[in-house]
Design goal:
It is built from 14 helices and 19 strands. By secondary structure, it is of the alpha/beta class. The strands form five sheets. Strands 1-2-6-3-7-17 form a six-stranded mixed β-sheet. β1 and β2 form a beta hairpin. The chain is globular and about 75 Å long.
Length: about 475
Amino acid sequence: MKKIIMSFAILLLVLCGVLFFRANTFFNDNQFDVKTPLEPVQIEKQAVLKRFSDAIKIPTISYDDRTQFDANAFIAFQQYLKDAFPLVYQQATLDVINQYSLLYHLKGSDPSLKPALFMGHMDVVPVDESTTAQWEQAPFSGKVVDGTIWGRGTIDDKISVVALMESMEMLIAQGIAPKRSIYFAFGHDEETGGKDGALKIAEHLAKQNIQFEFVLDEGGVVTQDMLPGVTSPVAIIGIAEKGFVNLRLTVNAAGGHSSQPPANTAAGILAQAIVKVEAAPFATDMRFIQDTFKHIGFATDLATRLPMANLWLFSPVVENMMLNIPSSAASIRTSTAVTMLKGSSKSNILPTEAEAIVNFRILPGDTVNSVIQHITKAIDDPRVKIEAFMANEASPVSSTQSYGYQLIEQTIRRLDQDLLVAPYLVQGGTDASKFYGLSDNVYRFMMVKLTPSTMKRFHGVNEQISVEDYLRAIQFYYAMVKQAAQG
């Protein structure tokens, strides 16, 4: 018995030794080593803040109901850009796509270099009337108060549009002649899917057989206290994004008075189907989380690093922990969300039709068809009709070894070497997904710091950004455009 206990103790010690050894050696510090920091460009602070404030004041709102589209607001925004950035309009060519989206081209001198494409979108989401009173500053005021710029679009995504235009205006003013051609693409309907804006821009470029060295859109940010076990700020670069599909579940049945119901009403059958859908989650896939931790694992605390370095043993535990948190669960599998329900119009009327809408965010590797097949098998009831609508496949995954990714990574670090950099999977949708036919290297990042609390301002109340962050965004885009243009 003593030998057995001794043997078990030795095995336990060996196992602990292996676990701790891997925890301290598995993740290497491969962050870009900064030899020459980038010198900040001189920015006329009050002038750029005035221009950004003016941009926020124009209510370029995208509504799901396209009959509410205000063309005059977008025309006004076009005129604002022309007035605010005259050198861009003198030196770059502009194509207005589908009346409201904008494509700028600053031609390079070396045709052997593939051009670079920088993106943003001019439209913003509406402000819910019921929340207007909760705004500390009016949502389209563009006010600058105590070092903060207020208003819809300060984060999503007029910051990219205006900061990019500032960067090109400065480069032209400095007389920098680009070797590589630079394109800016600004869509007008990203918030409703981008089919009239970014998609039309991509089709326009495809007709010209243009291929880009890389594409950079919004998406990733500088995170603070948003990744487990990491106290340092981390700049996350989106290398892929999830797709989406809505499934409409419909059950038809004979109607009638509720006093004489059948064994199962249409609503009851639908309810059973919904329970089956939620009880059949998609399989997990840890590859994107592992890729992120490969870059920053060395900087995490031991409690996080030990299981992540030993997934051969702790994978089930780590997966269960992640699945218990909605934000992390969404990063490791195709998500399922029942969002809409409809039955009869009155409490004592049996529904002749019951309907539910289920929204899925599709992890790369799954497809719209595989989602439909999975849900059809889970429900397994011919009385439930399943119909897909508003579908978009998950994007391909771009390389972290490309010129584009490494330029983004190096620029971030050379501007602020206290930032860690890592790739990640974007859970929402961006206009960038429309451009994979034009480049294999499509990335998403903007130099804005967000925390769990400020993240809620996306599409929420009191959208705002600090003056410091806005100026840093200009520095980032200026450095990116300048380096890319120089080849």
